[in-house]
Design goal:
single chain, alpha/beta, 8-stranded mixed sheet, 9 helices, 8 strands, globular
Length: 317
Amino acid sequence: MRTTVLRRLPALLLAITGIAHAADFYGDPNSEAQKWVKAHPSDGRVNDIRDRIANQPAARWFGDWTTDIGTDVAGYVGRATAAGRTPVLVAYNIPDRDCGGEESSGGATSATAYRDWISTFASAVGATRSAVIVLEPDALADLGGTKCASLKATRLSLLAYATAQFKKKSPLSKVYLDIGHSSWLSTTQAADLLGQAGIKDASGFSLNVSNFKTTQTETTYGKAVAAELAKGGFGTKTFVVDTSRNGNGPPPVYEGNWCNPSARKIGVAPSVSPAGESPEMRLWLKNPGLSDGQCGTSSAKAGIFDPELAYKLIHGY
């Protein structure tokens, strides 16, 4: 019994105190990077990719490709808990994802289907286990423009439902609503959308998912958004930053150059800040080496692991 408690201690500490080390996050042994490493032991790039990317604890994404959301989430969280680690999960199944865009299109087929899916997701994490959960990258930030205007009311309602489900069914988890990055919305816009999307039931918000903004830039922005939320009566909310590809910052010309741009680099490894410091966590939410689409420096389809892209991210090529 004592051994079991000790193995679960890191995950429980993160959930209760917010204090953990990078080694306390769970690394998926079946990630696409790990699969490539195991299948290519003689490749000249394998050591770098194994040590610098595959062995780092990155997030596991769940979406419309997930065969059985309840079984898959429960199994993944269960394996992490058994290993004494905290899993990082991303929910990516909002209906009309990307509002008609091509590379990230998809999502649940209806609002009802999404409610069922996210409720099952929360139940699968469970009331006695902990996880770090990022909700629906870009879904809120997209509402700041015009292409998603017709989806706004439904999307806000679904996200508020999602945060409430996790608060009820997975109270030990730390949940973050994604709000894009510092060049997307003003701080007041971001705080307003977060408020309408159920930030009251979440730990905070996430920034820079799959993007390249520097941690310093996102920290300044995140603190300003948190201040707006406090002014709005939402209390003290924290934020996390995706550092998976921000080692060299964004491309010199970012507009139209978001898809596998050259000369980008992996950022600092996942870690948790001391209590009270910002960002609360630096996470690898995007899995480095997974292509953004058939563009830029990769010919691989979106979500496919490209070893050459991974190698270039390691060295900043």
